[in-house]
Amino acid sequence: MTELTQTATSGDRVKRFLKDYYIYLVLILVVVVLSTANLDKFPLFERGNFLSERNIINILRVSAPILTLAGAFTLLMISGYIDLSVGSAMSLSAVVYAMLAINGVPFLPAFLATVLVGVLLGAINGFLVIRLKITPVIATLITLSLYKGIALLLVEDGVSAIKSGGGLKMPSWFNDYGRDGVMLGLPWAFWVAILVTIAMIIVQDRMKLGKYAAATGGNPTAAKLSGINTARTVIILYVLMGVCAALAGIARSSFMSLGDPLSGDGMELTAILVVLLGGTAFSGGEGRVLKSFFGALIIMSLTVGMLTLVPAYFQTLVVGTALLLAAASNHLVSRKDSES
Fold first, then answer.
1. Which pLDDT belongs to residue 283?
2. Rounded-to-integer distance, Cα 304 and Cα 106, Å
3. What is the mean pLDDT of each run of 10 residues along the chain (340 residues)?
4. Is residue 333 classed exposed, middle or buried when 0-12, 13-18 and 19+ CB atoms within 10 A define those classes?
5. What pLDDT is recorded for position 338?
6. SS3 of 186, please?
7. Distance (Å, rounded) from C-alpha 79 to C-alpha 95?
8. In which region does residue 265 sit, left (phi positive, over 0), alpha (psi from -120 to 50) or beta (all else)?
9. Residue 208: in which H helix or E strand, if any?
10. CB of 51 within 8 A of CB of 45?
């Protein structure tokens, strides 16, 4: 009997270890595989290898939008809600930011105005879900189409995006935020993503909002009975999501040097994959911002790393398969032993 107990205890410890460190082990595995796959052609850390300085900087630079979104999306899903309009909100923010810049508005006013647009977009989602009591999936599918439609309307007929041309020219500073290295070769967009992630970690671990989000997602009825204003909590989380979508749109617009109304297409799916890969429960109540951050790094590492390893038509399949296996394995490790 003692041996059985010890075996069970050891099994629980292994399971706990895998649950706590699974995401980091997956990232290490991805890096090892990608950096050694073409080692015969490109030595470790040399140009062409996955671990070359240039490639790492490029991955982190293009990761800025999803890294910016990951934390707020995690908190929203922990609360038991979801935002499928995040990609369209990002696109609309990118268009607004580019419009302001190309029409002569300086960086800081354009930046702040775009963030305020994000606040408005998030508040609309919160209003639809909480005040009008529309199912989150339906409500944010509606605003997905609405925000995308507005973004497309803001772009003149005959052109695909807001960019230099027709007598207008993007200011010289427009690319600085998303491209120019300010520290360790990385631009402001990446460092803002880091600051946003730190802020979301603080919200989750140190502030009432994070505790309320977990309580709302874990047991809404119990949360209400304990005095938590779940409606206000969810609205605030949607507003935070809108702000992060705006920041992601600014980062993407600056990196691309244009305001593309389709630049955020598919970002909602990527955000969902990131948080699920990080162990966030789709039903709410459980998840960690930091793990979602590393989940985003895994996705971007796979996306960029596959470019030099497999044909383009296989890349989506390879990335999707890898994510499916990783998410499924994480679910098996994290699930409760309800059957035992």
1. 78
2. 33
3. 58 72 88 84 82 91 95 95 96 96 94 97 97 95 96 86 82 91 92 97 95 93 91 97 97 93 91 88 86 92 79 70 66 52
4. middle
5. 41
6. strand
7. 30
8. beta
9. helix 208-218
10. yes
Region label for 104, one of left (φ > 0), alpha (ψ between -120 and 50) or beta (otherwise): left
Assigned token pair, 288: 């960690």
Determine whether 156 is exposed, middle or buried from the number of CB atoms within 10 Å of its CB (0-12, 13-18, 19+).
exposed
Say if CB 118 and CB 247 are below 8 A apart: yes
Alpha carbons 289 and 203: distance in angstroms, whole number: 10
Say how many C-beta atoms besides its own lie within 10 A of residue 249's C-beta: 36
Answer whether 256's CB lies under 8 Å from 249's CB.
Answer: no
* 6 C-beta neighbours (distance < 10 Å), count: 10
Beta pairing partners, 186: 183
**pTM for this entry:** 0.90
pLDDT of residue 332: 64
Triad 265, 271, 272: Cα angle to 5°? 110
What 3-state class would DSSP assign to 229? coil
> Which of 172, 148, 168 minimizes the C-alpha distance to 93?
148
Provide the CA 13 distance to its chain's centre, in angstroms: 31
CA distance 26 to 194: 21
pLDDT of 16: 76
Q: How many residues does the chain have?
A: 340
Print the SS3 string covering the chain: CHHHHHHHHHHHHHHHHHHHHHHHHHHHHHHHHHHHCCCCCCCCCCCCCCCCHHHHHHHHHHCHHHHHHHHHHHHHHHCCCCCCCHHHHHHHHHHHHHHHHHCCCCHHHHHHHHHHHHHHHHHHHHHHHHHCCCCHHHHHHHHHHHHHHHHHHHCCCCCCCECCECCECCCCCCCHHHHCCCECCECHHHHHHHHHHHHHHHHHHHCHHHHHHHHHHHCHHHHHHCCCCHHHHHHHHHHHHHHHHHHHHHHHHHHHCCECCCCCCCHHHHHHHHHHHCCCCCCCCCCCHHHHHHHHHHHHHHHHHHHHCCCHHHHHHHHHHHHHHHHHHHHHHHCCCCCC
